Amino acid sequence: HKEEKGHGHSHGHGHGHSDTGSAEEQSYAGRIESKLRIALPGVSHISVVDESGDCGKKIDLVVVSTTFDGKPLLARHRAVNDALSDEIPQIHALTIKTYTPTQWAEKKGQDHGGSR
């Protein structure tokens, strides 16, 4: 019974991935979201809206992260683009909106009828 030692069910599990099945089964939006979460530290909210019906042609992206603090828009977008570098070629229209948590809270405040 040598080969059972340490080679039982410890393969490929225990990496904190709660996704069931392979990455191919993930929706396009889900794949984009997990890539952004891996690439960008401090992400508190991601919204991926695939307006082309999950073929990834037209993506509306909202990313909220503390990593955007003090960064110009260009740098924020570049960080998002870098994270999705292998997805970008398939996306025809990518709209990126980036916020810091503070900006996001303010925006949500405005959205909920806070017309100051």
Would you mind describing this structure in some detail?
This protein has helices at 28-39, 73-83, 101-111, and strands at 43-50, 58-65, 93-99. It is of the alpha+beta class and 116 residues long. The chain has a three-stranded mixed sheet. Helix 2 links the parallel strand 2 (58-65) and strand 3 (93-99). The termini are far apart.
Question: TL;DR of this structure?
Answer:
The protein is an alpha+beta fold.
Descriptive tags:
alpha+beta, 3 strands
* Unreliable sequence segments: 7-23
Helix content: 25-40%
> What does the overall shape look like?
globular
Q: What is the CA-based Rg, rounded?
A: 18 Å
The assembly state of the depicted protein chains is single chain
Structural class: alpha+beta
Strand residues, percent: 15-25%
Question: Helices and strands, in N-to-C order?
Answer: HEEHEH
- Record the strand order, biggest sheet: 1-2-3
Give the biggest beta sheet: 3 strands, mixed
In whole angstroms, the N-to-C terminal distance is 73 Å
Number of strands: 3
Helix segment count? 3
What's the average pLDDT? 80
Mind sketching the topology for me?
Elements: H1 28-39, E1 43-50, E2 58-65, H2 73-83, E3 93-99, H3 101-111
Parallel strand pairs: 2-3
Antiparallel strand pairs: 1-2
Helix pairs in contact: 1-2
